[in-house]
Amino acid sequence: MNIPEVTFRTREGDVNFFRKCGFGGEWKDKTTDDYFKDKKVVLFALPGAFTPTCYQHHLPEYEEKYDEMKSLGIDEIYVLSVNDTFVMNSWMEAMKAKNVKAIADGEGKFTKGMGMLVNKPKQGFGMRSWRYSALIDNREVKKMFIEEGKNDESNDDDPFKVSDANTMLNYLKEAK
Fold first, then answer.
1. pLDDT at position 138 over 90
2. Of the candidates 5, 88, 100, 133, which lies 20 to 30 Å from 63 by C-alpha distance?
């Protein structure tokens, strides 16, 4: 399966995001080719920046395992969420992320194309990404770890068992 071809609206160069509105930067369009062409990438997607599991576990674990994944031939690690670029940039700043890079799928086009767009009205989120991770080699999905229970019923559950950094790391080690 190939990843969907979309254009992401991003902001680059803004300063003072956290606790303030970003300023000084500029809008940049980035395509899936910009992120994935001729690269071996680990992508993990989550329901939203600043949400408890995403904030406390998902991003920090991938940040911690970054060097080990790079040593296994991974070029980049991206976190994707159906949030706008201002939210994703602020979240990365708040998390002090140095290695993992954010992809803001504000309109959910990439997420929909991956078959991972779900509705979460009970939480007041609207359309968001289901939690998963994927190994993508030059735009081709080689492996996906999708959390159980994908639904549009807005259940309270938010499983976090197979999209974690250790599951991906173990897969990369075995595939080596």
1. yes
2. 5
Domain with residue 19: its CATH number is 3.40.30.10
Domain count, the chain: 1
* pLDDT tens, position by position, 43-57: 999 999 998 776 678
What is the set of active-site residues?
Answer: 54
pTM here? 0.94
Give a yes or no: residue 1 inside a domain.
Answer: no
Separation between Cα atoms, residue 136 and residue 56, nearest integer Å: 25
What are the pLDDT digits (tens) for 67-118?
Answer: 999 999 999 999 999 999 989 998 998 899 999 999 999 999 999 999 999 9
**In this predicted structure, what is the pLDDT of residue 122?**
80
Beta strands in the chain (DSSP E): 7-12, 26-31, 40-46, 76-81, 101-104, 117-120, 126-129, 132-137, 140-146
Q: Which residues contact 34 (CB under 8 A, 6 or more apart)?
A: none
